[in-house]
Design a protein that fits this description.
The chain is an alpha/beta fold and about 110 residues long. It has 3 helices and 6 strands; from the N terminus they run E-H-E-E-H-E-H-E-E. The longest helix is centred in the C-terminal third of the chain and has 15 residues.
Length: about 110
Amino acid sequence: TGIKPNLFRVPNGLVNEDIETISKELDMSLVGVNIFVNDPMKFDESTIYLDVLKEIKPNTSIMVLHDGFGTVPNMNRLFISEALEKIIKKLKKQDYKFGKLDHNGKCINN
């Protein structure tokens, strides 16, 4: 694409000295996640929905949800996207703002 990424989310959030050094060498900012509800191991929309709402905090939350395909063979995981849709609607009603990250990993509210 001709666009060099400048943000890196470490799988499972496992940052160590080597990752910090290499990310600096590559001029990449590390992005953390503070809401990880282990959704690939959940099997219904309401559990994911409630788990996220328990963990969410204003102005500081970055969450990870997965499509889940491959976790359980032949299982339809569309309920994860359905849970996300409900989560977004609920949080918008509570005046949460959604944004994107700038090139330094700081949130830009939309």
